[in-house]
C-alpha cells in the first residue's frame, strides 16, 4: 500500500490509460502500471489511477563527498559535493555496490525514513558545509526525479551546481526537463552488450548510449564510468567498442575504468586485476580518448596534457593534489584541457 499523502505526491511524466492504468515516461522502461501496482523502480505506484512517487523528501543518505568520488575529475576539482539519495533503482544489477539501498523499495516492504527533508533543507545543508555542488547519487536519481528536480532548481538559484551520477536510463523528455539545472553527470556504461544489460541489469543498452550522446549534445559536462568485471566485460573487443563509441562522441570525455570488488550477487567473483585496468586504459587511449583513469585503485588517477604529457592535476585516491593549469590550459604547450575548472 502507498504511504500517506505527504509521502505520495503525483509523479511527473505519465499518462492515464484505459482501465485505470498509467504509463510512466520517466525512464526507458516506459512501464504500464495497473492500479495498485508499482513500476520496475519500486518507488512509483499507481494509486487509484494516479501515478505517484513514494520517495519525495525521503532521504536515505546524505554525505559530504569530494567531487572526485563521483567520480568527476574534470569538474570543479578539489571541491566538495553534498551527496543525496532515496531508496530505489530502475536497474537490478547483480554487482551493485549500493544494493542495500538501491534494491530497497516500498513495494517490497522497505519503508523510507519517516522524516521528510525538503529540497530547501538540502540546499541549506550544502551551503552550510561549504559545498559547491549537490550530487544526486548512490542510487539512481532518475527514480526520484521530482525530488531532485525541485532541489536542483533551488540549488541553481543559490549558486550551486547540480550533478547526476546515473545509469543513463532516463527518457529524453526527462533529460530535457532537468537540463537547465544540470551542470555535470557521470554515466555508468556497464557493458557494450545488450544481452549483458538484459541479463544482469534487466534493462537495455541503447537508451544508455542515447543518453550519453544527448548529454554531450546538450552541453552537460560528461564523464563515463565502466566497472570492469572479470569474465563479464573485460575483453579487448568489448572495451575497445566502449572506447570507440565515446571517442566518436568526443575524445575529451574522461573514461573511468574502475576496479570491481565482490559484492551482492557477484560476491563469488574476484576483484579486477590492476593490469586489466591498465590494459583498458591503453585501449581507450588507442581509440582516441585523451583522458582515461583507473578507478577504485591508488594509481592511474593523474591528468596529463594529451599533447605534451605535462602533469596537470595530481590526485591521491579521490583526493586532489597539485593543480598545474593556466585557465584550463596546459601551461607548457597551451593545449586546452576539457573540463569545468572554476
The number of domains is 3
Report mean pLDDT, rounded to a whole number: 95
What is the terminal separation in angstroms? 47 Å
Order of adjacent strands in the largest pleated sheet: 7-8-9-10-11-12-13-14
The run of helices and strands is EEEEEEEEHHEHEHEHHEHEHEEEE
CATH architecture classification of the largest domain: Alpha-Beta Barrel
Radius of gyration: 20 Å
What structural category arises from helix and sheet content? Answer: alpha/beta
CATH fold call of the largest domain: TIM Barrel
Taken as a percent bin, the fraction of beta residues is 15-25%
CATH class of the largest domain equals Alpha Beta
Specify the helix fraction band.
10-25%
Count of distinct strands = 17
What attributes characterize this protein structure?
342 residues; alpha/beta; TIM Barrel; 17 strands; disordered N terminus
Verbal overview:
- The protein is an alpha/beta fold.
- The protein folds into three domains: 9-53, no CATH class; 61-301, TIM Barrel (Alpha-Beta Barrel), CATH 3.20.20.70; 302-342, no CATH class.
- It contains eight helices and 17 strands.
- It has helices at residues 99-102, 119-128, 145-157, 172-178, 194-201, 206-218, 236-249, 274-287; strands at residues 9-10, 14-16, 22-24, 32-33, 44-47, 50-53, 61-66, 80-85, 133-136, 161-166, 184-188, 221-228, 255-259, 292-295, 303-304, 311-316, 319-323.
- It has an eight-stranded mixed sheet. A three-stranded antiparallel sheet has the order 1-6-5, with no helix packed on it. A three-stranded antiparallel sheet has the order 2-3-4, with no helix packed on it.
- It is globular.
- Residues 1-6 have low confidence and may be disordered.
Amino acid at each position: 500500500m502507498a504511504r500517506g499523502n505527504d509521502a505520495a505526491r503525483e509523479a511527473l511524466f505519465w499518462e492515464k490509460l484505459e482501465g485505470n492504468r498509467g504509463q510512466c515516461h520517466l525512464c526507458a522502461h516506459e512501464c504500464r502500471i495497473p492500479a495498485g501496482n508499482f513500476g520496475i523502480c519500486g518507488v512509483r505506484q499507481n494509486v487509484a489511477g494516479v501515478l505517484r512517487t513514494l520517495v519525495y523528501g525521503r532521504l536515505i543518505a546524505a554525505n559530504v563527498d569530494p567531487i572526485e568520488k563521483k567520480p568527476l575529475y574534470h569538474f570543479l576539482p578539489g571541491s566538495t559535493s553534498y551527496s543525496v539519495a532515496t531508496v530505489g533503482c530502475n536497474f537490478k544489477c547483480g554487482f551493485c555496490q549500493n544494493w542495500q539501498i538501491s534494491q530497497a523499495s516500498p513495494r517490497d516492504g522497505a519503508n523510507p525514513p519517516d522524516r521528510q527533508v525538503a529540497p530547501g533543507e538540502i540546499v541549506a545543508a550544502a551551503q552550510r558545509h561549504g559545498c559547491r555542488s549537490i550530487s544526486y547519487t548512490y542510487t539512481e536519481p532518475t527514480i526520484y526525479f521530482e525530488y531532485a528536480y525541485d532541489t536542483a532548481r533551488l540549488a541553481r538559484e543559490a549558486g550551486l551546481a547540480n550533478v547526476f551520477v546515473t545509469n543513463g536510463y532516463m527518457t529524453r523528455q526527462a533529460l530535457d526537463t532537468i537540463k537547465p539545472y544540470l551542470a555535470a553527470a557521470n554515466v555508468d556504461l556497464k557493458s557494450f552488450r545488450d544481452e549483458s544489460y538484459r541479463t544482469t541489469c534487466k534493462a537495455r543498452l541503447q537508451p544508455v548510449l542515447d543518453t550519453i550522446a544527448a548529454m554531450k549534445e546538450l552541453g552537460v559536462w560528461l564523464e563515463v564510468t565502466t566497472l570492469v568485471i572479470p569474465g563479464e566485460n573485460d575483453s579487448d573487443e568489448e572495451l575497445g567498442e566502449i572506447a570507440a563509441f565515446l571517442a566518436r562522441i568526443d575524445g575529451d570525455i574522461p573514461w573511468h575504468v574502475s576496479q570491481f570488488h565482490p559484492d551482492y550477487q557477484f560476491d563469488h567473483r574476484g576483484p579486477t586485476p590492476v593490469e586489466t585496468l591498465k590494459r583498458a586504459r591503453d585501449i581507450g587511449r588507442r581509440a582516441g580518448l585523451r583522458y582515461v583513469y583507473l578507478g577504485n585503485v591508488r594509481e592511474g588517477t593523474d591528468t596529463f596534457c594529451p599533447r605534451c604529457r605535462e602533469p596537470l592535476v595530481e590526485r591521491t585516491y579521490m583526493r586532489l593534489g597539485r593543480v598545474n593549469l593556466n585557465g584550463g590550459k596546459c601551461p607548457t604547450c597551451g593545449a586546452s584541457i576539457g573540463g569545468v575548472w572554476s
